[in-house]
Structure formats: C-alpha cells, structure tokens
Amino acid sequence: MLLVPCPNCGPRNSADLRYGGESHARPDPATATPQQWRGYLYLRDNPAGWLRETWYCRSGCRRWFTLERNTATNEFRTPPMPGDKRGGKA
Amino acid sequence: MTMSRLGPQPTEVLDRSTKLRFRWNGKRFDGFEGDTIASALAAAGEHVFSRSMKYHRPRGILTADYWDPNLMVQVGDDPNVRAGNRLLEAGMDVRAQNVWPSLHRDIKAANSLFGRFLTAGFYYKTFMRPAWLWPTYERVLATFAPGGKIDLDTPHRYHDKRYTHPDVVVAGAGPAGIEAALAAAAAGARVLLVEHEHAVGGHLRYSSSDSDQAVLAELRAALDASEVEVLTNSTVTGRYEDNWLGIVQRNHPIAVERLIKARAKVLVAAPGLIERPYVFSGNDRPGVITSGAARRLINLWGVKPGERAVVFTANSEGDAAAADLDRVGVEIAAIIDGREGKRVSSAQGSSRALGAVVAGGNRIEADLLVVAAGWTAPTSLLNMAGDRPVHDPATARFFPSDPPGNVLATGGLAGDGTLDELRAHGAATGRLAAQRAAAVAHRLQAMTARARPVDGDEPAWAPDERTPLGRDPHPELYRSDTHGMVDFSEDVGSKDLVAAAHEGYDSVELAKRYTTSTMGPSQGKLETVNTVAAIAEARGETIAQVGTTVWRPPYAPLTLGALAGRVFEPVRVSSIHPWHEANGVSTIIAGQWMRPDHYGDPAAEVRNVRTNVGLIDVTPLGKLDLRGPDIPKLLNLLYTNKWSKLPVGKVRYGMMCAEDGVVLDDGVTGRLGEDHYLMTTTSSGAGGVWEWVENWLQTERPDWKVHVTPVTTAYVSINVAGPKARELVGRVTEGVDLSPDAFPYMEVRLATVAGVDGCFMWRIGFTGELSFEIHAPSGHGLHVWEALMDAGQDLGVGPFGLEGQRIMRLEKGHFIVGQDTDGLTLGPSTGLSPLIKLDKDDFAGMPELAWAADRSLPMIVAIQPDDPNVVPDEASQIVRGNTNEILGRITSARMSPTLGRSICLGQVEPELAAGGTKVTVLLTSGERVSATVMDHHAHFDPAGERLRG
Prior knowledge:
By secondary structure, chain A is mainly beta.
C-alpha cells in the first residue's frame, strides 16, 4: 500500500485517502464542446512517469491536495499546497 | 524404511518427559512435547502420510518442514494442516486427506495405471466439451480434488490483526538474519525479526557441530539481551508498495492466526535457501528424502530415518547428512557424489517402501535415499519489490539482481561463505538497513514538514559498501537420465513439462498454467527451478534464457480467518436504539448504520401511519451544516435547480448530478438564517456528498466563503408522519405555531421539543403524509422520541421502520437514488426535468444535461402489474412480448397495504414511458406477466393533498 505524504497529517496509508486522479482543468460549461467536456470526464494522459494528481485526506484533515507522483516508481515529490488542483489559490 | 526414536540428541527440541497422546487415522499414537505431527508419526514408524493429487501415489516425508508437499493432513475440523510444521498437541485427531477408503488401500490409486491419460492439459482437453456437461464434470472432479474436508459446523474462532511501524523488518532468523537484526537494533533502529520456524537459528538448529551450536547459543543470548522483537512460527507473506508487509503469526496465544500489517522503512530479506529435490524415476517414493529432512529428523526430533541409506550428495550439507546418519547408526550403503558427475537414476521398491536405488548402473539395496542436489533461492520478497532475480549456472541457483534500496538481501539469498562470513554480511546489512531507515524516516517527515517540523538535513543515502559474499560452485543438478516428479503437490512430472513444451507451451508462464506445475500448495518453493529446467531442456536452452515465473504473495498461505481478522469497522446506531431494541425491532444494516427495519409487521405500521401517526428514526439521514455568505452560489452549483431566492424559514428539494449528468444524490435543504443552511443528503450518500462539496469548495471555488460541518451524528432525526402528526407534535412543542397557515408544507422552524432547545423541525413528506421531521441534538434524541411516544398514546402513535417507509415512498412514487437509479441514470430520466434549470450559468453536469435534454432517455415510471397479487422481484426484466429483448426493469416492487395491490417503480425505454402503455414483465420464475405504466409516479394521492394538510 502506497504511503501518501499528506501535507497536514504526514505519511498516511493510501486507504486513508480518496484518490482524485490525474489533475485536469474543468472546461467552461458555457462554451465546452462535447469533445472537450468528455475529455475532461474520461480522457487521461496516464503517463509512465511524473504525474500531477489529486488526493483527499478523507480520514484525516479532509483537505484535497495535489501531489506529483512518478507512476513508474511511485515516488512522490514537491511539498504540496492544498487547494491548488489547477494551480488555483489556496 | 523404518523409522524409530533415537536416544536423546544434544540438539533435539523434545521434552521427553511430556508424552502427548494423539490419533492418526483413528489409531492411538504417542509423541513428545516439541514434536511436529510428522516427526511423532515418523518416530512411530509411519512412512506413508498422504496420497498424491492425481495418481494417488503413496507419499512420505520429503523435506520434514513447512514446505513438505506430502505432509498435508486434517486435524479435527482443520483441513490442509502442514504436519511438517504443526506442533503436536495432546488429543489431536489427525487424519490423512484425499484418500478413500483409507490411506493404505486407496482405490483411486488406479489412476496411476492410467497415468498416460492424465498428462499435461488433461483437464483442458477432456472436460472442455460439450459445455452443457460441465456441471456434471465439476461434480465428479470435485470429489477428486485434493485437500481436507471443510466442516460447516466449525465453531467461530478468534483471529486477530495488528498494525506496527518498525524501522527494520528482518525476514528470516538464521545466523545472517539474527546478526542483521542485532546490528540494526544496536544502531538505534526498531527491529522486528520474523522467523518461519518454531525457533530462531536457521540451519544452525539442526547442525550437530559443536562450534555451530556455540554460535547459536551466543546469538540467542544476544537476541534475548537486545531490543529486537522476535516472532517465531510467523512468516512475512507479502511485500507491497513502500515496504507494506503482511506477516502471518501462527503461534499467537489466543488467536488461531494473526495477520500483522507492518510498515517497515527497510526490509531485510534473509530467508535462507530451500533444498531442491532431484528429478529421477521414483523420486517421490516414500524413503526418498532431502538431506535437510534427514538432519532435521535426527538432530531436532531424534528420529532415525532408516536403516540402510544411499546418500546422493553434491554439497557440504549432503556430506553433513551422511555424517549424521553414520553417527546415529544408519548403515551407509553408498555415497553417490554429484560433484564427481555421478547420478542417481531410479528409486525402486514396493508401493510403500523403498527397496533399492539404481545409480551408475548399479542396484543398491536400501530403505533410505538422502538427496542433496542443490538449492532454490526463495527470492519472493525481492520479486514482490520489483526485482527480477538472475540465474547463475555456476552455482545452480538464482541471485538478486537490483532490488530497490529499501530492500536488502543477506544470508544464503546473497551468497555463500563460512559461518563467520555470513554473520559479518548479516551485521553489515543490519547497519546499512538502520542507516537507510533513518534516511527514509527523515525524508517522509521532510515531505510533510507542515505536519511536523523536521530537524537537520536529510542523512545521506548510505551506499552499499558490504563485502559481497562469495559463491560456492555447485553442479547443475535438475533431472537425471530418467524422468520423475517435478511438482509433488500437483503430480506434474518432467515428462509432462516436456510434452507441454512440445505442444507449444514453451513459455514458462504458459507451461506453468497448462501443466499446473508450481501452482499447488508448495507454490514453487520446491519445484520452480526444476520446472524451468525441464522446459529449458526441452527447448535446448539455458535456464537464464527461459527465465522464471514471478513469485507473488502470499509467500506462505494464511487462513481466510486471518485475512478477515478482527473487524475494526464500527457499527453506528442512533441514541434511540435502546428503545428500538426494547420494542421488538428487526434491524437492517445499511452502510455503517444499524437501522430499524420493522417492529414485526411493516404493513400494519404503514396502515397506522396512513390512519393515525407514526414515528421513524431517520438519524442516518446525511446532514451538513452550511455557513457563510456564498451558500446560494454553492447550492446553485451542486443542485440542478435554483437556490438564489430561498427565503429564511423555507426548505426546498434538490437533485444533484455528477459532471457526467448522472443522478448523484437528492434531498432537501433548508435556510435556517441569513447565512445558515442545513443540507440533507440520502443516508448512503452522506459521506460521498460531503467529499463532493469539499472538492468544489477547496479546488474549484476556493474563493467562496462557505464552511461545511457534517452534523449527521450530531442530531437525531425523527420523522413524525400521519394525519394526527400535527396534533402529536403540538403536544410536545413550544414556541412554534404549527397551524397550516403559520407553518405550511416545505418550511422549517427552530423549536423547543419536549423541553429540548435547539431542535430543527421541517415539514416535508417522503411518506406522503402530513409530516414533521424533527432534528434534535443527539444526546436528547431518546428523550424526544419517548416524549412523542408517551404524548401520542391516545392518538395511536406507533413506530415504523425502514420497510414501512419504503412501502409508503413507493406508494408515493418517490425514487431512491441507487435503488431506482443506477450509474447510467441521467437527471431527466427521473422525471424531474422541470427541476433541471439549464438557464443557470453553471452547475455540476450542466453540459451533459443540456445535451441530454434533446435526446429521448430511459425513464423512471410507476408500473402496476395487471394481476394485483403479483409482486415482481426487484430487477425483474421488462421485455418485448415473448422475446428476450430487454426494454427495462423493475427497480422497486412492494405489496401496497394502502391500495391492496402490488405497485412498482421501473426504468423503461422511452417508447414505453407513456401512461397506459402495456408492458411485459419477465419474472425470475420465467413466467411473463402483463403490467401497465401509470400516468403519475404516485400510486397514491397523486395530488399530494395529504402531505400539504
């Protein structure tokens, strides 16, 4: 089981968190084409390597946060900032 | 082969003063404290312990340890007990498995006469067709399946779980593993040392050398004096991401088995080596044993393994076995030295005993053949860490290639050497493990410095500067000049593997599955290398070219009980629960909650609500307390309808959809104050909706000022429903005018109920009756409930449960998310299109719902079977006429006590959605019945006059 570094709670078993998946920007619903919207819903880059992804610390601090993980080695990096799923304000 | 108990041996683990009486196949036997089941039986002269899986060949001791494939027995109601490992206890009822009618007269042994029909892929080839015969095949084959008998009346026994976070876990307590544990602990690490056998010491335990015994005593004393936690008769069964380890402990004082989940910073793999059988004709006869088995029998349990032995040895352990045999008076008929190129060709004899060994063309009479043909490196834990071990032909075994830095190997897995060299390597490994564990700890802390400040710089990742162990040359001995057994558990011979390779199953992963070699209880411990070697030979390639199968967890089996373990998941009950229990409740588990399902007669509960008044405990209803100026924006975003103009004191129903337009949840939300709302969710959606709300607020709209507090368990929720609800609630409520004009439908009030301040009360109606839903502070819930019950005696008040509520909501045609909807049900399919406001700027799922508005979708409709007494099973299909074309399904069905007929909700294709449409319901019995789609969802009171009253 992965050990996920929660910025607030420290290292936690991945089962203590909800995996939010690959970070992806939400298109403007007023102008999104079906292709764009379904890309947002279903299409992921799924790289073998560094991936920006979101986690929710459901059993701890209840914060969503972003991490970078190397999908080939499961190494995490960058001290995460909460709330910056798309680089937004914390 | 006749075994017998020797006089006391200096290294034995027996307490000869404690005799243990037990039964073996109904007969009485005696053993000593310290015996395994197998050693006690061997000492008593037994030499057939089981019948092989396919051919029912008699089988005796092979390795005399946990991995021995021939020593699986039934102990009482406990099947598949490993008699080479399980310690003898007084009164044990031990029986042979997979035999009929008895171990010695086994009728299925006739299988061996037809052996050529049971070759590789026999089952695949024979039982594939015709498919309709498969149930018959299955029934017959099941009686041939090996393994013990499951007793369905076995009493529930306690299993346990433990979580631990050591710095270093050392798997294997041989001399190298012990030294690693001691060195790591001396360097300040918290160490857990896990030993598969009943005592630490590894191969030193069954060495008759005085110097080995002195070292063992020294190591044990050092362990006792150290801080190392030692687990014996326990196995590291799996290594997962970030050194998450599964450990099964078989000798827990209370639990049958305990599963330990350990998060180690560094894992040291020191499992030693497993002795490999040699493949030749008759190599599975009773009387053919490994050198380790001979030494264990003699030195641990004082058992003389035979009278006249042939020793086939290719290494020092085999030589030591010959010396041990000689020392205890076993006549050595011949020593065949594998290092000189000599081979054993065949073991012959009667069905139960060895008679002679053929080697180099000579026939040598013997009742014991001891084989020391080399080693299998149990690289499992390294495999699980991603390593791909490489084969070294010069030593005839696999070595680690490049495991990750937090997994270190030592001992036999890492190489050969003198005892001093192995100990030194172990100690160096322990020091390295402690250094790296400190670095891992620092790194984890540094990554989460906001949680705990970290001091100093990260320690450097210690380089691996251990002096490598040497590698002793060893002849490559896999198969002799004859064919024999490769997988003893699965009865797969080298001939089968050659045949498989010739049939095209020449990849080792394919051949394994085709022949089932390595797939039995031994799981490759004894047979992997010989399997690979047989395929390599058939392909004319080297083992390195063929490669090996991947070892996967678990390394050793563990019971399902251990996996299930102790359940930590709490069951939630409301504070009213004691009342329910005292009043004949029948409960139902719903998610984490234990809820009242009914109190004996749900139909009567329904009738009472429809005529008098009833109370239901709906505490699990999800409740989120919302505060802040931006709540209307949030509600507009989460719900499909509009929330900007909800006045204080009003509640509104809303439906939530996910971003793909699928119905996510529904419920009512009320405005309690200017910037204060209470949102309710479905009971099952309480947790998920909260995460959903937090996701929007934290990631998409972090600038919005809304604070969310889950208050599901802070309030007890009681729905008072029925024509007399106002009368009842009025008797216990202060400070609120309950008259219809002052407190109409879909409004909320703050009230004092039964003297309890701070209760919220709103008028809604899932049951379709006049209802007041009271949310009272949790600690006062039971009091409020009892006050209502007391106050309403003359009104005929009674409780109703979830079942009664489900009937009434179905009478009213209210859908339940997850029951009447599924993962494909788009918002408009619920029939609530008027609540989907596509003219809003934005809300979750809006684009999909906008596109869906132009399409015809499956619809949720009310359905009544034409025969009012037919209640279709939920999930019954709606089909086209007499065809099997599926046009929908019944999602909810009940007998309505109010209407005296069956009523349903269902999802149907758009063409069937219009009121009055006749549909065909295919019952689970296969019968087809006609039914009618209704004009309204509500079967009862479609105008909703009762609830507005």
